[in-house]
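Lab manual, section 2.4: Encoding a predicted structure.

Procedure: take the sequence of the chain (297 residues), apply the prediction step described in section 2.3, and record the output as structure tokens. A sample record is shown.
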Amino acid sequence: MKFPFTGTGVALVTPFRKQSTIDFSRLETLIDNIIESGVNYIVALGTTSEAATMSESERAAIHDFVIEAVADRVPIMLGIGGNNTQAVLDNINSTNFDGIAGILSVAPYYNKPQQRGIAQHFKIIAETSPVPVVIYNVPGRTGCNITAETTIQLANECPNIIGIKEASGNLQQIMQILHSKPANFQVLSGDDALTLPMIALGATGVISVAANALPKEMSQMVNLALKGDFKKAQQLHYRMLPLMNALFEEGNPAGVKALLEITTEGQFTNALRLPLVKVSKPLYNKIASLYETFTAK
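Recorded output:
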């Protein structure tokens, strides 16, 4: 199976108006900009989209709108996950997958399942999904880690599980996966700042938050690294690194939404839904200063 998600993917933010309604016009502008800047695919309704604060009808509207706006220019990965396995299956069975190349399914959170439970959860998702599945390991959010052993087991036993977005930050674990995985199973970085070292170790790309605001630069860095030009990729990496780190100081997507407001000179409204709030004024000013330094180089 050809892997449709190599290179730079963007975990789309959801633009909100000040009244907290979805700004579809700004979302279309964002999609056009990141595609025209060279990204390889888009992730809709992931964590960065604030999907957890949306109603079912809003998520359906985002799903339909993103497919229409992307218009087959790049593949779309759709976020479908949760900590109730049956609810995830119901969601899959009720979803129209026309225009969707795969799903991103987060590890079951809050419940803190055993590894056997995690494996069974993903196996039945893979059996149910009509499109390929990329599992998502982000223990800092979920409260549980998908171990390297479980990832490799799923990679070997489930043909429809084609990759993992690894955001554990544990390079030892990531290296174990990269060393032991089957050849057709891909590893994607889930941390912007670790993308370059992970590609050097064998990963095939990133699902990026920063690329909402820096799509051209992130795509260039990833492409250079995948071609083996690590000297130039390293220059871009270190140029972006202070800004990338600042984006996560007070959580995601608060940081990248602040940066989008800065880069668009206020056209992108820096609005989030509770319980998320805007970054503090000191951090906003820091991001603005780092962006000014970044663009001056």
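Check your result against the sample. The first strand starts at residue 7 and ends at 11.
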